[in-house]
Amino acid sequence: MDTDVIIVGAGPTGLMLAGELRLGGADVTVFERRTERSWESRGIGFTARAAEVLDQRGLLGRLENAEITRQGHFGGIPIDFGMLEGSHFGVRGVPQYKLEEMLEGWALELGVSLRRGYELTGLEDTGDGVTAVVQGPDGRHEHSAPYLVGCDGGRSTVRDLAGFDFPGSDATREMYLADVTGCDIRPRMIGELVPNGMVMSAPLEQGYHRIIVCENGTPPPDRNRQVTFTDVADAWQRLTGESIHGGRARWVSSFTDATRQVTEYRRGRVLLAGDAAHIHLPAGGQGLSVGVQDAVNLGWKLAATVRGQAPDGLLDTYHGERHPVGARVLRNTRAQGTLNLSGKPVEPLRAVMTELVAIPAVARHLSGMVSGLDVRYDVGQEGHPLPGARMADRELELAGGGRTRIARLLHPARGVLITADDSGEPARCAAGWSDRVDVIRVRSIPAGPGEDGAATESVLVRPDGYVAWAAPGAGPLAEALRRWFGEARGFPEPRDSQPMASAR
């Protein structure tokens, strides 16, 4: 085998996955058909959960001009996301090319092999591995690995070659987007309904504005048609009465409301993540964000699998956990599209939804859905409110003195057992997993919102930041350790006061 894992696609999902796999000890080769990074802004932000994920790897601080905002929306209806633990809707002001630049630098630091200018033209799952055929500037080559992951976007070659089913609904409308300068455009941050459509504008760096134009009644697009700035400016003027024809665009594109999801995220030795697995209307920055979360869910599981440390069925939990999340994103983006893009026929529905959003419980539910903060997995543990939920960042006072934060403990992408149990029993139990799980002794574990005052003496956090077990009440710790980290190997003394392990 040439490498442990082949990744096809060097967008945010592929680069995030590559870094995660390297942290888990796997060798990774990424093939990308583009010869250089894209300088298109595309997404200009990401959700609160994606921000947490980046923070848990020490990456959020690498992004310049990242603006955390509490204000978000559901289908154009404003919502204050400050009611959630984490207290924000997400991050704005980060064009996708800047995120890709940061993630590429991180992945290369970790030792990822990134090969640009290589296009996948064939693949074969041989049962004990995958052979990929790529065409590059130096000709045709075959490469093999135990696993291959398609992170190659909505028109995924991997998905087609591997024969994944991709059911869903076709596009019914086309929307334009562009980064424009040299003209006067006022901000319309969450979109503005106008007669016969919707327009959005948001300031970017260097005097540019991102604009989106959705004109009702536009036919499904010809995928081979090249959109021009004149197309965008004409549509903008038809909807707003304002001319931006005197400006210029550094990037013009279009998107649709096509909605599709593969029926399985894994077929044998081939897996999919990000837009290769699901496409939907861009709403609330969820597309890029869900792809990054796919990568973080998959990375540690696949790395453990290729290292021979994964328990039976661990890799299957990738589909089991992420497919329902993707399906829910497709539902909520379709609902948002109906609210925001259907014109006068849905005005009564918008009025009712506006009333409902004023109810705190409804706003909290929709905020959790769009931000990704309410994702919960079935980890097979009951009796405590934390298992299955994400472990929000909190400051901890270490038993041996000093302080740290939960996000910092997760930088190496290892499991973490945080324990305030004076008996030392959880630490002794976890000693056999010290090659995969760090033990951190603290004075106490602060309760978070939604835990109803439940005491937490110990908590086992998976590398992706989700809680696998908590005490008291969630059953035997050893059972949870075996379920997620395999069998114990040896019994060295547990780590007790080190805030984090160094990334490998």
UniProtKB/TrEMBL annotation:
Q: Where are the transmembrane segments?
A: none
Question: Domain FAD-binding, which positions?
Answer: 2-333
InterPro entries per the UniProt record, alphabetical: FAD-bd, FAD/NAD-bd_sf, RIFMO-like
Q: SUPFAM superfamilies under this entry?
A: FAD/NAD(P)-binding domain
Keywords on record: FAD, Flavoprotein, Monooxygenase, Oxidoreductase
Signal peptide stretch: none
Q: What is this protein called?
A: FAD-dependent monooxygenase
The species this protein was found in: Actinoallomurus spadix
Q: What is the lineage of its organism?
A: Bacteria, Bacillati, Actinomycetota, Actinomycetes, Streptosporangiales
